[in-house]
Amino acid sequence: MPGVTTITRSYATGASSYHSLQAVFERRFHSGLGFNVNTTWAHLLDNAPNINGQNGNGVGQVLATQKFDDYGNGDLDVRNRIVVTGNYALPFGKGAHGLRGALLGGWRTNVLYLWSTGMTFTVLNSTNVSGTSPGGSADRPNLSGDPFQNITPIFSGAMQFFRASAFVAQPAGTLGAERRNPYHGPHFRHWDMSLFKEFTVYRETHLQLRAEAFNIANQANFSNPVTGLGSTTTLGALTSTLPSYQPRLIQFAVKYEF
C-alpha cells in the first residue's frame, strides 16, 4: 500500500464515576407565599477529557499508564450548586376598596438566586516537557507548595487567584506531579428579582405592570484564571469574565392578559 502514509489507531480506555446528593425543600404556594430551595452536592471523576475536540488538561500521552495518570476531576465537575426561587403576594391593601385598594393591592414579587462552585482547571507547562505526546501538547508541571497560600499579585490589572510560584516545570523526560483538574475556579453567583402589579380591566382580563432586575447585586462572575506557565506576567490572574456574564440590567414591561 505505497499510497498510505499514516495509519491512525483509536481505542477506548475511558472510565468515569459520578456521585451526587440532591435535596429539595419546597413550600407550595399558600397564603401568598411559595418557595423552593434545591441543592446538588456532586463529584465527577474521569480520565477522558475533551475540550472542543482538543486536549486541554495535559493529556494526549501515548504511555500505557495514561488511563491512570489522567484520572481526576472531570471537566464538568461542579461540586456544589444551590438554587432558590420564591414568589410572594405582598399583603398590603388586602380587603381595601376604592383608590386605596387599587394602589396598594395586587403587588407581587419573585426572586431567583443561584450559587455554584467554579469549573475545574489545570495549570500547564508551555511545552510538552515529558515528551510523551506525539502532538506536542503541553503537559502538567510539578508543585512546589500550596498555590492558595501566600498569594502575591504579579499582574496589577487583575486579581490574583493562585500563587504562580507554586508551579515549576519538571525535569525533561519525566511526568509532572500535578494531577488533572485539581482546582476549581471562582464561584458563580446570580440574583434576579421582579416586582409586578395586576389591575383588573374587565372580568378575567388583567393589565400587569412589571419591573424586572437581572443580576440585581451586580456581581461579577469571572472565568478561570490564566493557567499557562508561559504567561509569566498573568499566571494565576483573573483577567476576564464569563462569556455569559451580564452586568445589572433593569427593565420595565406592560403585560395584558386575556
Shape: elongated
The main sheet comes to: 8 strands, antiparallel
Alpha-beta content class: mainly beta
Q: Stretches where pLDDT falls below 50 for ≥5 residues?
A: 51-55
Total DSSP helices: 2
Helix coverage percent? under 10%
Overall number of strands: 14
Based on CA atoms alone, the radius of gyration comes out at 26 Å
Number of domains: 1
Beta content = 35-45%
Report the span from N to C terminus: 74 Å
Helix-strand pattern, N to C?
A: EEHEEHEEEEEEEEEE
Integer average pLDDT: 87
Observed structural traits:
about 260 residues; 8-stranded antiparallel β-sheet; two-stranded antiparallel ribbon; 2 helices; 14 strands; about 5% helix; about 40% strand; elongated
Description of the molecule:
With 258 residues, the chain is mainly β. The chain has one domain. It contains 2 helices and 14 strands.
